[in-house]
Write a structure and sequence with these properties.
Shape of chain B: globular
Structural class of chain B: mainly alpha
Structural class of chain A: mainly alpha
Strand content of chain B: under 5%
Number of helices of chain A: 15
Distance between the termini of chain B: 39 Å
Largest sheet of chain B: 3 strands, mixed
Oligomer: heterodimer
Number of strands of chain A: 2
Distance between the termini of chain A: 51 Å
Strand order of the largest sheet of chain A: 1-2
Helix content of chain A: 55-70%
Strand content of chain A: under 5%
Largest interface: A-B, 34 and 36 residues
Radius of gyration of chain A: 20 Å
Largest sheet of chain A: 2 strands, antiparallel
Order of helices and strands of chain B: HHHHHHHEHHHHHHHEEHH
Order of helices and strands of chain A: EEHHHHHHHHHHHHHHH
Helix content of chain B: 55-70%
Strand order of the largest sheet of chain B: 1-2-3
Chain lengths: ~280, ~290
């Protein structure tokens, strides 16, 4: 079970694994990646280090040491903090956070898509429109992409934008992203309810019914729901907030694609026409 | 009873906005006041009942029934009367005021792009947009200028811009169940369903009061004809993202806007994208609107 599994790393280096059920109060506040995913990453890092050339290995090892040091610094900061903060740390931060996970993978030159696939969490663009748009963006120059990113920021709702408070404060975890995005999705409330019902996923139904947003759903369910809703997987997994690449060709394309997934049908046509004219200019 | 009095009563109900279904039964004076205003304006214009019925496409008996205060016409027919007979906006007919309408995001970006162009460059872009419109009009079917069937499109537009569900625009919580159901029926129904055509005048007024959006926006294709229109822009001098809303005063831009608003939603996206592409090719800039 991926849901709510967290690993508490003790000072002596041993690990203490705790499993939180969907109804647990602490589970919803967990911002760490599932332990399985964390293990796959560690495994892949080991494999990369084992197969890399000597020069590359030393470079990657240096990077890894630096990341570990940063992590220790972060823990030390919390140890020195007052008791309230410490309790919060224990509750919230046990494994790697989603963004830390993505940054570690990127620093170790590993593809996030490959890691997720190995953990049996395949990701893809939710629909053909998005796939085509990602291909079109691949043809644009970096300057054009910067302009398009500015354009999508203007055109799309503030709701999803990683630098906006709504996203930063209300939706720090994949579960919250999917559920809050579904709750607010333009449509009638009954449509949203029906959508969850049609998915037939008990974990997601449980999260939907918990109005306190204190329960978590397995990543697999969230990615499936996000796929059906047409959201960018990098946005759901919060990798976008760290500027990491999951499916697109660059971080800026990933940003554009996340914004594209939140556009209305009319605005999609507007954006596609602008992209076409930008390619031809 | 005036519109202002009605608005105060609607918003002052204990449990959020008044219940639509009980409200208009409780205050029939408003509908009667609107019938009086209709008769008064008709008399002011010195028009015959026959002329009015021809202009708005209803049977003359409907006009006679309004004159004898037996009935009120549907919202889209009233919009037609306001635009074709009284030459005023629907909101002006209801409240006597001309509140500005805020443009959706895509049109805001386009208008601020056009506004930022130098006059010579603008003179190049605007005819191209008109040409695009003419090309579309060559083989397009005529569009109904006033229709309750525009309501779903407009509601979706407001909600998509803010990323909120369909209850979002109705301030103070969800409207009454009966009201919500009637709107739901309109949004969900096919274009040919008669339910879509019978959007009542009182529903339009109620919707306008609780969403604070002029009634014209929900019923009239080219709402920029008699009402001032605003677009969003970010003040370059102010710190942070201080958004200001600017009224469009330029006649050429208003003219272009009316072309764009007159086309159906699926063509409009293409037209806005084309116009933005033209502006972009000249300036290489996208303005801040948020």
């Amino acid at each position: 079970m991926l849901m709510g599994v967290v690993i508490m790393k003790k000072n002596d280096g041993t690990q203490n694994t705790q499993v939180h059920g969907a109804g647990s109060r602490s589970a919803g506040r967990t911002v760490s990646v599932p332990a399985e995913l964390d293990q796959v990453l560690d495994q892949m890092i080991e494999e990369t280090l084992a197969t890399a050339s000597e020069l590359k290995r030393s470079l990657l090892q240096d990077r890894y040491m630096l990341l570990q040091e940063q992590r220790r610094e972060y823990s030390r900061g919390f140890k020195d903090a007052d008791s309230g903060d410490k309790a919060k740390w224990k509750r919230i931060r046990r494994g790697r956070g989603y963004q830390e996970f993505a940054l570690t993978a990127q620093a170790m030159e590993l593809s996030l898509k490959d890691i997720l696939e190995r953990a049996e969490l395949p990701v893809k663009w939710p629909n053909q429109d998005m796939e085509n748009m990602a291909k079109k963006l691949g043809k644009c120059s970096e300057d054009t992409k910067v302009m398009l990113a500015r354009f999508i920021k203007q055109l799309s709702p503030l709701f999803w934008q990683p630098d906006e408070d709504e996203c930063k404060l209300l939706m720090p975890t994949p579960t919250k992203r999917v559920i809050i995005a579904l709750e607010n999705k333009p449509g009638w409330k009954r449509d949203q309810r029906q959508f969850v019902k049609d998915l037939g996923d008990p974990a997601l139904s449980k999260v939907w019914q918990d109005k306190t947003h204190a329960t978590t759903a397995p990543l697999k369910s969230l990615l499936e729901a996000g796929d059906k809703l047409g959201f960018s997987p990098a946005w759901i997994l919060t990798f976008l907030d760290a500027g990491c690449v999951l499916l697109a060709d660059s971080p800026i394309s990933e940003y554009i694609m996340a914004g594209y997934s939140f556009l209305s049908q009319e605005n999609r046509v507007v954006f596609e026409t602008v992209v076409d004219s930008a390619i031809h200019v | 009873m005036t519109y202002q009095e009605l608005k105060e009563l609607v918003l002052a109900e204990d449990n959020g906005p008044a219940q639509y279904d009980v409200f208009f039964r409780k205050y029939p004076e408003f509908e009667s006041a609107m019938q009086d205003r209709f008769i008064e304006l008709c008399e002011e214009q010195k028009t015959t009942k026959w002329y009015i019925s021809k202009q708005i496409g209803v049977n003359i008996s409907v006009i006679t029934r309004i004159y004898s205060k037996e009935a009120m016409m549907t919202a889209s027919k009233l919009a037609a009367a306001c635009y074709n007979v009284f030459h005023m906006s629907m909101q002006e007919f209801i409240s006597g005021e001309k509140p500005p309408i805020d443009l959706p995001k895509n049109l805001s970006i386009l208008v601020s792009s056009l506004d930022a162009l130098e006059p010579e460059k603008r003179a190049k872009v605007l005819p191209q947009i008109k040409k695009k419109w003419l090309a579309w009009q060559m083989d397009a079917e005529p569009q109904e200028p006033f229709s309750a069937l525009l309501l779903p499109e407009r509601l979706k537009e407001v909600c998509a811009d803010a990323y909120t569900d369909y209850y979002g625009p109705f301030v103070g919580g969800a409207p009454s169940r009966v009201f919500a159901l009637s709107i739901m029926k309109l949004v969900d129904n096919d274009a040919n369903d008669p339910a879509g055509k019978q959007f009542r005048f009182s529903q339009a007024v109620f919707m306008s009061i609780i969403s604070d959006i002029p009634a014209d926006y929900f019923l009239v294709r080219n709402y920029a004809k008699y009402l001032p229109v605003r677009y969003r822009s970010v003040s370059p001098m102010a710190p942070g993202k201080q958004i200001r809303k600017k009224l469009i005063n330029d006649a050429d831009i208003l003219d272009t806007l009316s072309y764009i608003l007159s086309v159906p939603s699926d063509v409009r996206g293409d037209m806005i994208g084309y116009a933005l592409g033209q502006c972009w090719a000249l300036t290489k800039k996208i303005p801040d609107v948020f």
